[in-house]
């Protein structure tokens, strides 16, 4: 006898989706989450009337079909995730609006005329978000891909985007998944945000499944007998286990899998300082991305109160500062006070009055924030996916090497489908 039919490790969107889908077919599923809350990289902190999105900041209207179908099934309509309705600016001596929008080809958005023309050429072609390795770009990094074009395309568009949203290094990260994602999600003004926090989706899923928070799994054992999860001195057996955690964590929990893909599927860390303001600042754009050439300490400034008015109490403001990838390693172990001071000082000239408007700073560190898609990982991805389907399975956006919640949802659905097929095969034996 097993303690549970299916054990899912990780209560992020991928794990909760897999558990929800398996539960609909009558499977007994239990989700184990080390944190005290569900959501993984889609969590929200509620503090003094502020809603603080700790990692994921927005979702897309386009390119998220599996997410929207599942939201509808949960009874969450589009009014619960309204359009942000504002754009993204690029800092080049000043904030320049129109990044990743058609108007940017006219206004410039910080790019020279030649770079604008090159940008229009770049987005042509077909890219597959589920199979990024099939792209004609092959294994080129972002830097290698941009080399034939005007330098502005890399320095004032691609580098700020990959570093500012994903924490990637363009010299190390593959271009194909980036372009697949950018061409699928549409312009920023159509992007959406859950009005009650980015954890809305996860909380809705968790309401339909058995979740044990504050439960740390130390390792997974599958040595020819029933798979088991180990937590301290406690063992829980299951017919199947789904590891819905970042790839480096999955590799530590279950090293016996021995996948080369798992060993090279790295994640980038992110450090953020959320500044609770006594007044709103910024505008008209809800986000400002900052090229390395212009700063080097801060990569993104998000005006959360412009992203959605419910993110801050009336008459107040909320601004999130995302550290540049180059300084993240030293900030991971710095004190909260040092992190907040350093990021605020580096942003003051971008957002005048920021220091005096700040009432309080909340610092968040996410050590596994986004899968960094290296060319080596891209080359191994398809074979890894083809080999899935055993009693220990995997879910997460990293399975598709696409850093977005839609990929996490799709991976959870795929894991549930594979386990359903495995159960049928076992009954037929």
From TrEMBL:
* InterPro entries referenced in this protein's UniProt entry, alphabetically: Amino_oxidase (IPR002937), FAD/NAD-bd_sf (IPR036188), Zeta_carotene_desat/Oxidored (IPR050464)
An example molecular function term from Gene Ontology annotations: oxidoreductase activity
Q: Which domain of life is it from?
A: Bacteria
Q: Using the record's annotation, list all stretches that form the Amine oxidase domain.
A: 13-419
Instruction: Kindly name one Pfam family recorded for this protein.
Output: Amino_oxidase
Query: What is this protein called in UniProt?
Result: Amine oxidase
Please tell me the species this chain comes from: Amycolatopsis orientalis
């Amino acid at each position: 006898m097993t303690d549970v039919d299916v054990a899912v490790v990780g209560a992020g969107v991928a794990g909760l989706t897999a558990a929800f889908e398996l539960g609909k077919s009558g499977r007994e599923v239990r989700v184990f989450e080390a944190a005290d809350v569900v959501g993984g990289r889609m969590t929200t902190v509620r503090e003094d009337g502020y809603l603080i999105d700790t990692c994921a900041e927005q979702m897309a209207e386009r390119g998220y079909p599996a997410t929207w179908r599942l939201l509808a099934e949960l009874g969450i309509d589009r009014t619960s995730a309204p359009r942000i309705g504002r754009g993204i600016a690029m800092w080049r001596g000043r904030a320049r609006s129109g990044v990743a929008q058609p108007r940017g080809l006219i206004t410039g958005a910080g790019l020279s005329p030649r770079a604008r023309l090159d940008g229009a050429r770049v987005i042509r072609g077909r890219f597959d978000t589920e199979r990024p390795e099939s792209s004609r770009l092959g294994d080129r990094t972002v830097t290698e891909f941009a080399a034939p074009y005007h330098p502005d395309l890399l320095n004032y568009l691609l580098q700020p985007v990959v570093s500012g949203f994903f924490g990637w290094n363009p010299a190390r990260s593959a271009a194909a998944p980036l372009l697949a994602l950018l061409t699928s999600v549409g312009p920023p003004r159509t992007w959406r945000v859950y009005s009650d926090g980015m954890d809305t989706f996860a909380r809705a899923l968790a309401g339909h499944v058995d979740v044990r928070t504050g439960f740390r799994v130390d390792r997974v054992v599958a040595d020819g007998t029933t798979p088991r999860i180990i937590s301290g001195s406690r063992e829980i057996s299951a017919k199947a286990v789904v590891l819905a955690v970042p790839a480096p964590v999955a590799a530590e929990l279950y090293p016996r899998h021995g996948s080369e893909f798992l060993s090279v599927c790295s994640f980038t860390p992110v450090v953020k300082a959320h500044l609770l303001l006594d007044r709103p600042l910024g505008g008209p754009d809800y986000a400002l991305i900052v090229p390395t050439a212009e700063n080097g300490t801060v990569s993104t400034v998000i005006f959360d109160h412009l992203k959605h008015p419910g993110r801050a109490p009336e008459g107040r403001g909320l601004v999130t500062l995302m550290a540049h990838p180059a300084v993240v390693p030293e900030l991971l172990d710095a004190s909260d006070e040092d992190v907040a001071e350093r990021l605020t000082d580096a942003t003051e000239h971008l957002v005048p009055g920021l220091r005096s408007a700040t009432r309080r700073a909340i610092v968040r560190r996410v050590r596994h924030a986004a899968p960094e898609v290296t060319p080596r990982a891209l080359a191994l991805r398809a074979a890894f996916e083809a080999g899935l389907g055993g009693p220990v399975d995997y879910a997460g956006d990293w399975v598709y090497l696409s850093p977005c919640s839609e990929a996490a949802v799709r991976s959870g659905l795929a894991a549930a489908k594979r386990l359903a097929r495995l159960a049928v095969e076992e009954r037929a034996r």
